Amino acid sequence: MAEPVIQIKDLHKYYGAVHAVEGLTLEVNKGEVFGFLGPNGAGKTTTIRCMLNFVFPTSGELRLLNKNPVEHGPQIMKEVGYIAGEIALYDNYRVRDFLNMLEDVRGEKGALRAELLQRFQLDESRKIKNLSKGNKQKVAIVQAFMHLPLLLVLDEPTSGLDPLLQLEFYKLIDETKQRGGTVFFSSHLLEEVQRLSDRAAIIKKGKLISLETISELRSKNIYNVSVHYKGREPKTQDFGAQNVENFTLIDHSAQLTYKGDVNALLEILNNYELVDLRITEPSLEDMFLAYYENDEETADTDKS
C-alpha cells in the first residue's frame, strides 16, 4: 500500500466572507510528483500556506510526513524544500550568506549545493538585491533542493526561468522522483504538469474539481472539431448545448470543443454538407477549460 506523505482532509480556510479553500480533501503518496492546477485565486497558494503552517486553517486536518504541521512545524520544515509563489529573500545578503544561514537553521550542509549552483549558473558572491527575477528564482530552487528533502512543496517554481533552465529544473524533478522524494507543485502551465506529474488535482474557488492521473485526464471524451461546410449553418443546439464549448462560426467554418461520444458526433456532422473535417485530440489546456465550464454550469444549476 502506498505511503501518504501529504494528507489533507476537509480543509477549510476563510478570510472573513471569502472562502479561499472549501472542503479540500486529497492525499499525495511517497515518491509521487503531484500537480496542483488552478487559475489565480483558485486557492492553490492558500492550501500550500496551510500545509506549511504559515496560516492556520479554519477547520480540517493536515498531515505532512505523518506529522501535524501545527504541532511539529519546525521539525517538518527541516525535511521540506519550499519555493514560494512570490519569492521574498534577504536582499542585503549575498547568495553565499543566505545559503549558509539556511544550512545553520537546518543543522546540515546542503549536499547538492555546489552542484546546483553550477547547474543553474548562479554566482554565490552576488548580493541578492542585485539579482534579476530569474536569478532570484534560481536561488529559491537551490535552497529548496540542496539538502535532499523528503518532500518538495513548490508554488509556481519555474516562474522567471528561461527555457533552457526550465529543462534543467525538469531534470531535477525527475532526479528527485528517482531517489524516492515526493513533489507537490502548483502551476498554471499545463504542459509543465503534463511533463512532470503522475497525478493532478484541479481546483477552482477553493474546491476540488478533479483528481486523476494525467492519462485519465487525457482519456476523457473531449475532441477539438474543425468543420468547413456548405449550405446550412451549424448551431450549438444541434450538438447539444451541454456538449459544446468554444463554439465559433467564421466564413463557413465552425470551430468547437465537443464533449461526448465520437460516434454521436459523427452522426450529427453527417447532417451537414462538409467540405473538410478535422477532429483532433485536445490539449491538456482544453481539458482544463472543459472542467471549468462544467463546474460553472453545475454551480449555476445548484443556485437556481
TrEMBL record:
UniProt gene name: ybhF
Transmembrane segments: none
Annotated InterPro entries: AAA+_ATPase, ABC_transporter-like_ATP-bd, ABC_transporter-like_CS, ABC_transporter_ATP-binding, P-loop_NTPase
Keyword flag Nucleotide-binding: yes
Keywords: ATP-binding, Nucleotide-binding, Transport
Organism name: candidate division WS6 bacterium OLB20
Pfam families on file: ABC_tran (PF00005)
Domain ABC transporter per the UniProt entry, residue ranges: 6-230
SMART domains xrefs: AAA (SM00382)
Protein name: Putative ABC transporter ATP-binding protein YbhF
GO terms assigned for molecular function: ATP binding; ATP hydrolysis activity
UniProt family annotation: Belongs to the ABC transporter superfamily.
Matching Gene3D superfamilies: P-loop containing nucleotide triphosphate hydrolases
